[in-house]
Design goal:
Length: about 170
């Protein structure tokens, strides 16, 4: 009796190992990519949530609004701005710079509101105030997207949000 494997057994063994290895590698790669996609989604969602809350609080706390243009996309033109008067901070200016970073300026200091990993592609304010001036409602539209500099699908994420706020200092 001879010891060893027959050629058929060896080919069958290699086929089974190849199939299992291929399945495990594919599964492992999908786990890595889904983790990347999840972190990109969290980055965009977290920045969007912070921006909408900050904009809402700024509008609610303002005593007056002085926008340069209603309905203009601030991200399309860095020279455009949304200005308001805040009792706590004085004159406050909200802008989107050419890199897609939303900035707020008050008290002589400028602060970035979103991370460099995200980019604002649309920030528009629309005045829905009543004609008699009793209610001052402002709607804002915000589009934020991932800014990772990669064309791979797992790095692509954008959110389009719409919100509104009313000046409470009427």
């Amino acid at each position: 009796m001879r010891k060893g494997f027959t050629l058929l057994e060896l080919i069958l063994y290699m086929a089974i190992v190849s199939l299992l290895s291929g399945a495990l590698i594919t599964f492992g790669w999908n786990v890595v990519l889904s983790g990347t996609k999840s972190s990109v989604q969290q980055e965009v969602s977290g920045n969007a949530r912070f921006l909408t809350k900050k904009i809402t609080l700024l509008i609610r706390g303002a005593t007056a609004l002085n926008p340069s243009d209603w309905g203009v996309n601030l991200a399309a033109d860095p020279t455009k701005q949304f200005s308001l008067n805040d009792p706590a901070y004085g004159a406050t200016v909200l802008q989107v710079n050419s890199a897609g970073q939303a900035t707020i300026t008050y008290g002589g200091y400028t602060y970035e509101l979103n991370s460099p990993k995200t980019k604002i592609t649309n920030l528009t304010f629309i005045n829905y105030s009543s004609g008699d001036g009793k209610t001052k409602n402002i709607q804002y539209n915000l589009t934020i997207e991932a800014n990772y500099g990669s064309s791979r699908q797992e790095y692509q994420q954008n959110l389009i949000l719409e919100g509104d706020a009313e000046l409470r200092s009427n």
